[in-house]
């Protein structure tokens, strides 16, 4: 379930909104206009089916179209403002968006009134589709590729089932939880307040299953193993799917790899029973890499895959896999991803839809020591675009970061993320945002960085952020 096809549908009445007070008021107004006594309390106790169905319980068939038209003419002014959000509704929608998904509202209510409700409550949805019920909802959900449909009625369960979507019932409407389960709901929640927690678990389990299937289908794989959280999780997942004899880890050794990363990578691979290879790459021989324009990562990844390809073939591994995740694919400017794809590398984490957050959570569940390891991009990512990449620059950055870590550790400063960016003769220090002022006032921290060979050292007031160097690229380059 990749992020670009991850779609969740929600019913409206008694799932996202409690529209009973407003609907009751509309029926009372219809009664006053027509002289037919509609029991509005009874009507709102069975919300779910189309309006025509309810009107047909009170009026003869030939009058139903006119009653429906009257009801709808009164609805906007009478009912919209009287509705309230159901518990957890806004949070449920936010949870889908946090995972990179799209949100549909699919309801028996007519589309115009459904949109008014959505707009009135400021619900951030991608599309509202109205005037569909039960299996008709299934047709809409299927057409939009919805993977999950949440609703409070038996008709909602039938709609999800018709679409082959996961049927999530919420016991906030007229149908008891046990009846929703009996009708085929895959899971029933008391209300949407529990939805974000359920979604977290559901997506991880779904994506773990997808990842396992993908990896098993590869037959054998060499993982481009940097030692970071993503490639470590991918390596562990490959071992689970294929067994250690069908998996290898390859950590490229070059001036752009911090020395401190190599031993932990070797130890991790050994803990999985996987052979660990350390081929040498020479990205420095590539003019595009040395020039350090905005597409530097293209040449680095090209070198990596072109070195690993013959090694994998010689050792009998049929595929090379990188730890690219779904967040990487959405990041905009990632020329390295393109270079690896052009050379046939596979990206199982991205294809299964794993975000960085999910990689860490799944790693934590599996007890991997890398689950909370800070991001550790290659040393060349610290060099400002336009400055030539040289072994001396890389060594200077590494020396500065090692010295700065030592100072912070010795002073008892609890940091998580740290970078020293080379922007010429100046070193720009990035630390966790909450530590910016503290580190800026530590003379020994500044001196440690200057001792590596920089003329000026300053702490970035914005703090650490991944891809900070991309901020210096002009927009047409950054997002092409």
UniProtKB/TrEMBL annotation:
<dbReference type="InterPro" id="IPR005232">
    <property type="entry name" value="LarE"/>
</dbReference>
<dbReference type="InterPro" id="IPR023214">
    <property type="entry name" value="HAD_sf"/>
</dbReference>
<dbReference type="GO" id="GO:0006163">
    <property type="term" value="P:purine nucleotide metabolic process"/>
</dbReference>
<dbReference type="InterPro" id="IPR022310">
    <property type="entry name" value="NAD/GMP_synthase"/>
</dbReference>
<dbReference type="InterPro" id="IPR036412">
    <property type="entry name" value="HAD-like_sf"/>
</dbReference>
<dbReference type="InterPro" id="IPR014729">
    <property type="entry name" value="Rossmann-like_a/b/a_fold"/>
</dbReference>
<dbReference type="InterPro" id="IPR023198">
    <property type="entry name" value="PGP-like_dom2"/>
</dbReference>
<dbReference type="Pfam" id="PF12710">
    <property type="entry name" value="HAD"/>
</dbReference>
<dbReference type="GO" id="GO:0016783">
    <property type="term" value="F:sulfurtransferase activity"/>
</dbReference>
<feature type="domain" description="NAD/GMP synthase">
    <location>
        <begin position="216"/>
        <end position="284"/>
    </location>
</feature>
<dbReference type="InterPro" id="IPR052188">
    <property type="entry name" value="Ni-pincer_cofactor_biosynth"/>
</dbReference>
<dbReference type="Pfam" id="PF02540">
    <property type="entry name" value="NAD_synthase"/>
</dbReference>
<protein>
    <recommendedName>
        <fullName>NAD/GMP synthase domain-containing protein</fullName>
    </recommendedName>
</protein>
């Amino acid at each position: 379930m990749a992020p670009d096809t991850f779609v969740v549908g929600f019913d409206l009445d008694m799932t996202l909104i409690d529209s009973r007070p407003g609907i009751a008021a509309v029926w009372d107004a219809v009664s006053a206009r027509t002289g037919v006594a509609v029991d509005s309390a009874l009507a709102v106790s069975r919300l779910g089916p189309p309006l025509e169905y309810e009107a047909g319980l009170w009026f003869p068939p030939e009058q139903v179209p006119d009653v429906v038209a009257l009801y709808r003419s009164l609805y906007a002014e009478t009912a919209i403002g009287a509705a309230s959000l159901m518990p957890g509704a806004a949070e449920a929608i936010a949870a889908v968006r946090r995972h990179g998904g799209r949100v549909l509202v699919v309801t028996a209510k007519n589309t115009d009134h459904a949109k008014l409700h959505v707009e009135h409550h400021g619900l951030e949805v991608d599309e509202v589709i109205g005037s569909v019920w039960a299996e008709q909802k299934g047709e809409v959900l299927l057409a939009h590729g919805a993977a999950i449909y949440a609703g409070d009625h038996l008709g909602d369960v039938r709609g999800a089932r018709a679409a082959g979507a996961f049927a999530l019932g919420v016991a906030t409407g007229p149908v008891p939880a046990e009846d929703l389960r009996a009708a085929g709901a895959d899971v029933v929640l008391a209300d949407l307040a529990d939805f974000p927690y359920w979604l977290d678990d559901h997506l991880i389990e779904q994506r773990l299953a997808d990842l396992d299937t993908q990896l098993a289908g590869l037959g054998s794989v060499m993982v481009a193993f940097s030692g970071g959280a993503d490639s470590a999780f991918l390596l562990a997942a490959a071992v689970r799917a294929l067994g250690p004899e069908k998996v290898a880890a390859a950590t490229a050794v070059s001036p752009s790899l911090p020395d401190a990363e190599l031993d932990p990578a070797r130890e991790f691979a050994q803990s999985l029973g996987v052979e660990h290879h350390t081929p040498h790459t020479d990205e420095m021989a590539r003019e595009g890499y040395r020039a350090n324009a905005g597409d530097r990562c293209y040449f680095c990844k090209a070198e990596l895959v072109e070195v690993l390809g013959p090694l994998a073939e010689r050792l009998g591994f049929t595929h090379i896999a990188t730890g690219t995740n779904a967040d990487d694919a959405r990041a905009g400017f990632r020329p390295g991803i393109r270079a690896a794809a052009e050379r046939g590398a596979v990206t199982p984490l991205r294809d299964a839809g794993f975000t960085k957050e999910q990689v860490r959570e799944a790693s934590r569940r599996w007890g991997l020591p890398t689950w909370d390891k800070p991001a550790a991009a290659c040393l060349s990512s610290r060099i400002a675009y336009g400055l030539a990449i040289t072994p001396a620059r890389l060594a200077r950055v590494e020396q500065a970061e090692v010295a700065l870590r030592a100072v912070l550790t010795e002073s008892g400063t609890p940091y998580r993320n740290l970078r020293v960016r080379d922007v010429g003769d100046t070193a720009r220090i990035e630390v966790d945002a909450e530590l910016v002022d503290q580190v800026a006032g530590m003379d020994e921290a500044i001196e440690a960085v200057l001792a590596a060979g920089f003329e000026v050292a300053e702490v970035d007031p914005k703090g650490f952020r991944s891809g900070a160097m991309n901020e210096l690229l002009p927009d047409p380059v950054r997002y092409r």
